[in-house]
Amino acid sequence: MQESFWLQRWHSNQIGFHARQVNGQLQRHWTTVAGSSDAAVLVPLCGKSLDLAWLAAQGHRVVGVELAEVAVAAFFAEQGVEPVITQEDAFKVYRHGRVELFCGDFFAFEARHMPGCALFYDRAALIALPAEMRERYVRHLQQILLPESHGLLVTLDYDQALMDGPPFSVSDAEVRSWNGTIWESELLESQDALEDRFRARGLTRMDERAYHLRLL
């Protein structure tokens, strides 16, 4: 999971992980997580997700962090808008309307880049990371966000022995393993997400789960 892996995937357009529609679990469960708040939302490893535009349409300031500049530029091009581009520390930042995308390493993103943030959304970050990197990721997320922050986490769970990631399998037990130290989690929904492309790779089961998280 070196940076070069993801940059190569984006530059060669090997982006099967990019969803062509807004995530259904986001649409169904976001109000459970955010309530009536229109506060800023952090979206780690955001790619060019349509979920960014959906969150902005709900009235949020949306701050995404993405390594691949080609993905950041593509998001705004596909939205048909011209972003303002600035440099902030190690990040090239693209801004238009309510959306701000920081191009760079998520582990270099700090609370000072988004002070006072108390909402987050993760559909493609945790499952993009191998097991040995996931705890580092969740602890870094905890450092960026305020205590008592709320978030929506969407995971995939399947038999990792049958298919290598990414996307990687993140079990319910793993999510709950951080209860009491990183967050408290509540399972909101689990649905069958097995597609033909995954069946072709040998899978017989894939569950997509949505969790409401409260950071400690």
Automatic annotation (TrEMBL):
Gene Ontology MF: a single term: thiopurine S-methyltransferase activity
Annotated EC: 2.1.1.67
Biological processes, Gene Ontology terms: methylation; response to metal ion
A Gene Ontology cellular-component term: cytoplasm
Gene3D superfamilies documented for this protein: Vaccinia Virus protein VP39
PROSITE patterns registered for this protein in UniProt: SAM_MT_TPMT
Keywords: Cytoplasm, Methyltransferase, S-adenosyl-L-methionine, Transferase
Endpoints of the signal sequence: none
Main localisation: cytoplasm
Subcellular location: Cytoplasm
Record HAMAP family: Thiopur_methtran
PANTHER family named in the record: THIOPURINE S-METHYLTRANSFERASE (PTHR10259)
Name of the molecule in the record: Thiopurine S-methyltransferase
Source organism of the structure: Pseudomonas fulva (strain 12-X)
Top-level taxonomy: Bacteria, Pseudomonadati, Pseudomonadota, Gammaproteobacteria, Pseudomonadales
